[in-house]
Amino acid sequence: MKEEIIVSGRLNHLIDPQLHIWHWHIPLYLFLGGLAAGILFFAALYTILGKEKEYPTAVKLAPFLTPALLSIGLLALFLDLNHKLYFWQLYTTLRLESPMSWGAWTLMVVTPASIVWCALHIRELFPNWDWKFNWLKAVETFFNQYKQHLAWVLLISSLILGVYTGILFSAFNARPLWNTSILGPLFLTSGLSTGAAAIVLMSKKASERHNFARIDLMLIGIELFLIVHMFMGFLASTQVHIEAAHLFLGGPYTVPFWLFVVMLGLVIPALLEFLELRGFHMPYFIAPVLVILGGLIFRFIIAYAGQASRWLY
Q1: For residues 149 and 230, what is the distance between their CA atoms, to the nearest angstrom?
Q2: What pLDDT band is residue 140 in, cutting at 50, 70 and 90?
Q3: Buried b vs exposed e over 159-197: b needs ≥16 C-beta within 10 Å?
Q4: Which residues are CB-contacts of 10 (< 8 A; sequence separation ≥ 6)?
């Protein structure tokens, strides 16, 4: 039972209606995890495709953000735990039916793998860098020999991490808004979109920025499709799911969601990226910044609105 207490303790602040909803740890963790997953996915993908030289920011530079993103996310998650001294028990068992167990073990793989990935590219960013210990040089040589294998590990684990950030909510049947299979692919798509936006923001190569702007434009289209599909599913379901949808369709979350997430976080960035790809000159950083902020706000709204939706008794 102790393991079950620890596993359920992660989201205790989100599922207990007696507690205040203004709790920022979980949505911040989900955002940072999704952003890191998106960056690592593209780094691994273009390494596997042999396009490291074409997309140096995606493969070599942007991944340096991920250890920090994951560390801050894990710190936020740790702060949310009720039983902080027993967090290590998450790693003494693997519960295949528990999304939180999957997430814990995925983070156990992704976090050190992201650090190794950064270490493999540190010489290219800092040419004078030299490892002080011979064993570190041996480790670097070893992982360079198996870099493609490491890329596949990152590719698969980043996809699991991106989906997990949505499944973490959808596994809670007690909250009708969260109880939808759309959240997994929706959060994954949002994470990939914010990852692509971060690469656009950091890249100095116009060709790389344009490529990831195209990718982000496609991901935004998928995201909008999934959002519409999610609400269509709610409105065609039970009364409690209809009530959950109405939180965004005339309810208290209507303006924040449709203005800050859909319009400013998706539609306007998509329009700006489309115009830039068509040759209109404008500050390239506006669209990716809006996408990243929209992704952050999206997770906070879903977290808070989910607590406001409940089954009728």
Answers
A1: 36
A2: confident
A3: bbbbbbbbbbbbbbeebbbbbbebbbbbbbbbbbbbbbb
A4: 26, 77, 80, 81, 100
Task: Report in angstroms the alpha-carbon separations of 26 from 32, 188, 299.
Answer: 10, 16, 9
Encoding tokens for residue 275?
């115009």
Asked if residues 103 and 158 have their Cβ atoms less than 8 Å apart, the reply is no
Query: How confident is the model over 186-231, as pLDDT tens digits?
Result: 999 999 999 999 999 999 999 999 999 999 999 999 999 999 999 9
In the chain, domain spans:
2-308
Describe the crossing of helices 25-48 and 66-80 by its angle, rounded to 10 degrees.
150
| CATH superfamily for domain 2-308 | Formate dehydrogenase/DMSO reductase domain (1.20.1630.10)
- The answer to whether 16 touches 116, Cβ cutoff 8 Å, is no
Please give the torsion angle defined by the CA atoms of residues 222, 264, 160 and 212, in that order, rounded to the nearest 10 degrees. Answer: 70
Query: pLDDT tens digits, residue range 103-119?
Result: 778 888 999 999 999 99
**Residue in the structure block whose two tokens are 């914010």:** 194
Q: Could you tell me which of 8, 15, 26, 18 has the C-alpha nearest to residue 178?
A: 15
Contacting residues for 41 by C-beta, under 8 A, at least 6 apart:
154, 155, 158, 159, 162, 192, 195
This prediction has a pTM of 0.87
Is the Cα dihedral 184, 188, 193, 195 positive or negative?
positive
The number of helices, as runs of H, and strands, as runs of E, in the chain is 14, 0
**What's the rounded Cα separation, in Å, for the pair 305 and 253?**
7
Amino acid at 100: M
For residue 87, what are its two tokens? 């967090």
Q: 3-class DSSP state for residue 160?
A: helix
